[in-house]
UniProtKB/TrEMBL annotation:
Organism: Brachybacterium equifaecis
Bilayer-crossing regions: 21-43, 55-76, 88-107
Lipid bilayer topology: Multi-pass membrane protein
Domain DUF3817: 17-108
InterPro entries per the UniProt record, alphabetical: DUF3817_TM (IPR023845)
Keyword tags: Cell membrane, Membrane, Transmembrane, Transmembrane helix
Protein name per the record: DUF3817 domain-containing protein
Subcellular location: Cell membrane
Major place of residence: membrane
Pfam families referenced in this protein's UniProt entry, alphabetically: DUF3817 (PF12823)
PANTHER family: MEMBRANE PROTEIN (PTHR40077:SF2), MEMBRANE PROTEIN-RELATED (PTHR40077)
Top-level taxon of the source organism: Bacteria
NCBIfam families on file: integ_memb_HG
Amino acid sequence: MPTPRPLDEVAVRASFARFRFAAVAEGIALLVLVAIMVMRYVISGDPEGTWGSISRAWSPIHGVIYMVYVVLGFDLWNKMRWKLPRMLLIMLYGVVPVLSFFGERWIHGWMVEDLRRRPTLQDEERGAVRPVD
């Protein structure tokens, strides 16, 4: 079996730092959107009133934040060379309120474990020898 291409740990960690910021921003933006929708449809009972205006202003902002989250998630997924189901999970984490906060932690764990287990370009610099699984 051929040796897998090594990961670039520096690029992966930089990509994760960007993704982490986007995950937190998406989580906050989604919570704000949910709060606006509750105010619009449940509390005020007037979907076209003030909360309707706020909703029309916030929804596109949230959409842009989610698109940035997906692009940065794709960048991390691509650098880690994970399989497609993991990318689908990353996208799902940004759609369910509060899940992006937990998902970011789970993704961090996956990344750290993969960097520990898989060969990286920085192994030679450290003089590290990785065990073969």
